[in-house]
Specification:
Blueprint: H1 4-16, H2 24-73, E1 84-85, E2 88-93, E3 101-105, E4 114-116
Antiparallel strand pairs: 1-2, 2-3, 3-4
Length: 123
């Protein structure tokens, strides 16, 4: 088994002989470390993306609920039309400002469907 001193002496001898560069063992160690880092980082990145999609859905539905409530309070009985915007399908229930409940669904989002508005019993 080699010691660190022997590795340093071997590296010095390579340099003196004009054999500069990394050894195969050093390159394999670097590749293994990069593989471990990638194996840890990819699932974390996927979890961040899923959470961002869920939060975007919640924000969009909350905005639509505010818009529907404001429209009904201003005298527009229709609130927000049932439509799909950026892959989110909205459904509006209720005809008074205190009874509006907007439900938003988006395929592939874990928090879908999400409800928002003063008339919803659970957000």
């Amino acid at each position: 088994m080699r010691t660190i001193k022997q590795y340093l002496e071997a590296a010095k001898a390579r340099k003196e002989n004009g054999e500069e560069g990394f050894s195969l063992v050093e390159l394999i160690v670097v590749v293994v470390i990069l593989g471990i880092l990638a194996a840890v980082a990819i699932p974390i990145f996927n979890g961040i993306q899923a959470k961002a999609e869920e939060n975007a859905l919640k924000a969009a539905v909350s905005t639509m609920a505010s818009q529907a409530t404001a429209n009904v309070a201003a005298g527009n009985a229709h609130g927000v039309p049932t439509t799909a915007v950026e892959g989110i399908t909205y459904t509006v229930a209720g005809t008074t400002a205190t009874a509006i409940c907007v439900t938003g669904t988006k395929a592939g989002v874990t928090g879908s469907p999400y409800k928002a508005g003063p008339g919803c019993t659970t957000p």
